[in-house]
Amino acid sequence: MTLRRRLLFGLLLTLLIALTASSTIVFQLYKSALISKIDQQLSGTVPFIQRRLQPGPVGPIGAGELSGFNGPGKPPEPALSLPVDSIAGIIKPNSLTVRTISLFGEQNPVPNLDISTRAIAQQPGQYYFDQVASDGSSYRVLLVDFSPNRPLYFVAIPLNQTDSQLQLLLFTEAFTGIAIAAALSIVLLQILKRGLAPLESIAETADKISSGDLSLRVAIESRYSEMSRVGRAINSMLETIEGAFKERNATEEKLRKFIADASHELRTPLTSIMGYADLFKLGAKNSPSDLETLMSRISKESQKMKVLVEDLLLLARLDEERDPNTTEVELAVVASELCDDFASLNKDRRIQFTTTGSTKVLGNELLLRQAISNLLTNAVKYTPAGSSIEVEADEIPRENTCRLRVSDYGPGLNQNGLEHSFDRFWQDDTSRSNQGVGLGLSIVKGVVETHKGRVSVVNLPRGGACFEISLPLCSLSVADGAMSEPDR
Description:
Blueprint: H1 3-44, H2 46-52, H3 63-66, E1 87-91, E2 98-102, H4 116-120, E3 126-132, E4 138-144, E5 152-158, H5 160-195, H6 197-210, H7 226-282, H8 288-320, E6 327-330, H9 331-345, E7 350-356, E8 360-363, H10 365-381, E9 388-396, E10 401-407, H11 415-420, H12 440-450, E11 454-459, E12 465-472, E13 482-484
Parallel strand pairs: 7-9
Antiparallel strand pairs: 1-2, 1-5, 3-4, 4-5, 6-8, 7-13, 9-10, 10-12, 11-12
Helix pairs in contact: 1-5, 7-8, 8-12, 9-10, 10-12
């Protein structure tokens, strides 16, 4: 059974129970009111009965007593307000017989009421009860006992009019209940149809989404209904799922490209090594000079392949390890040592290092050393001989970060290079064409992001590129003064 039918059935059942209960209460109250009115009419006849039907000393009841209150042919008193088919009677205590008469002249035949057994059990006074006459009609009877050892008197009013009124009320209640139920069924169907329309829309959207279209969203009409809350929750879930799928697809595409680039870069030294091996087989081993050249080139290609594999392994570890083993690292000290090393190895470059403020960060010293080394290698590679390389390590108090900048005086980067310089295996910048596989800056980015920092590159107005690393400081302390070191 659908939700709509269950709701409709439940509401109609509740309505039916409520209508039945209310109709029963109304019916009983109306019936009690009618019976109470009849009892009041009967009670009003007691003085009349006492005055007209009670004779003198107990004796035989003559025909005159049973022919009417006023005797034969005499009209009833105007004070008596009873239906014309009302009857009265006398029950003699000795014979226990019931004699009934008409209250309004002759009435043939007069129905008999069998009330002798009931009357004997009653105490002196007045007693109201319902009784069925000999002709099958119902009467409301008032039994009166004026004094002990005297006849019992009764007055009875027919209930046919009351029964008709109650039947009419019952029919009216039944017809009204059916009409109300039918009308409410139509109204409830429309309300449920409109109220459950968002749920049907959600189901239709879910069916379309299950076919693969994750861009669909559930329409939300109202802000405060339960359906709108469900719709917002589903839309939020769909956005999360769509984002996850996009991220997965992007990761897979990036991985495929990475594998393709890595395979291409590894194929080059492997092809060279295989070529040199073939030359060795063809006779280069017989010539000492050719053999030396051959082995030197094989060693060079092997070294290149080793560096590539190590870089790939480092990137893989950075992708998997988001919380490396960290200690307090004085970034200025690491940068200063690397600047000394590069200055001694590159005599044709002038490497300047300056530092200001606190540069103590929480990180892995080996990874940070690798990142700074890659930036210096990149700067040396693309800086003309005789040019300067400027390295600055300073504190940014308002951001609670340490900033390391490596600036060169090379040709700088084009727009494409500014956008993709940190991509893996990216070497599209023809102005900076040189040997390499395009993993150095990718490693820098991976190391910095692992340390919850930022890395960026900009072109300087004077020419050249500036690579900047920002890392969170260990503390809020700011070192006094500034330290600068001479040119190297």
